[in-house]
Amino acid sequence: GRLPPGGWLELAEAALLRGDIDRARSALEPLRKSGALDAGAYAALQLRVLSAALQRAPSVDALHALWADLPRVQRRQPELIAVYATHVSRFGRPLPAMDEIESALRRQWSPALVAAYGQLQGQDVEGRLRRAEGWLDAHPGDATLLTALGRMCVRIQLWGKARQYLSQALALEPSAEAWEILGETYAGQGNPLLAQQCYRNALHMTRGEATEALPGTNAVRQVALTVDPELRNAHGVPQLPDDKTSV
Fold first, then answer.
1. What is the pTM of this model?
2. From CA 95, how far away is CA 66, in angstroms rounded?
3. One of this protein's GO BP terms (predicted)?
């Protein structure tokens, strides 16, 4: 039916809230033609709708069909690739997820895709870790990559290596995610007190509060002041003076 320009926007938003993704998608084209949103706002809404559609695909076949049906320009959006890859890996299909992300990263580096790569479900984490470590040569100071590497190391219980990657990530760009994964590392090593402190620091960061130094360790909060830019490991990653690549 006919709606005033703002009506298509309200319809799309209401359908999203109800979880009626097909209805929300059907409102996109009339909304675009109406000119009710500028290009940036329309692109953001379209991304939300398509992300929701991918996330709600009921089966791996439905997900593949939806992905194949999207125009090529949308299948090259890092945010949508991340959603598709994450969801398809949860269906037990990590290889298509890896292929999509690796192909996209060859075209253009994207921290969002690197983060998604580190979170993929499925087996062969060792192989995925080796591939991602190869990216350090070109992106040695990328905190998102270091955090993803730390996450994968935790998955396969490489505790010392995980701690090194995560400490470097926190030195370069502190994040709640890195603190949380560092907490998992200490928990895996049988140190619940340091694990709890890391989790507390993750909570502090989400609240915009100051983090606290870890007792009995180098203060990760102060690492940024002590990293020697000339001291690098085999991949060229800035390394702490007392770093040990333990496994």
1. 0.79
2. 18
3. heme metabolic process
The parent domain of residue 65 ranges over 58-123
Question: Do residues 67 and 135 both lie within one domain?
Answer: no
Q: What are the residues whose beta carbons fall under 8 Å from the beta carbon of 41, sequence distance 6 or more? A: none
Cα–Cα dist 73/98, whole Å: 19
Number of domains in the chain: 3
Contacts of residue 62, Cβ cutoff 8 Å, sequence gap at least 6? none
Confidence category of residue 3, pLDDT binned at 50, 70, 90:
confident
Q: What is the largest CA-CA distance in the chain?
A: 68
Q: Which residue has the higher pLDDT, 120 or 241?
A: 120
Return d(Cα 41, Cα 195) in angstroms, integer.
41
Interval 134-171: pLDDT, tens: 999 999 999 999 999 999 999 999 999 999 999 999 99
Are 45 and 37 within 8 A, CB to CB?
A: yes
Residue-wise pLDDT for 68-109, tens only, equals 999 999 999 999 999 999 999 999 888 889 999 999 999 999
Tell me the percentage of the chain whose pLDDT exceeds 90.
78
Any domain includes 95? yes
Which 3 state secondary structure label does DSSP give 103? helix
For the beta carbon of residue 146, count every other beta carbon within 10 angstroms: 29
- Whether 161 maps to a domain, the answer reads yes
Nearest alpha carbon to residue 30 among 55, 10, 52, 53:
10
- Tell me which of 123, 150, 167 is where a domain ends: 123
Distance CA 46, CA 78 (A): 14
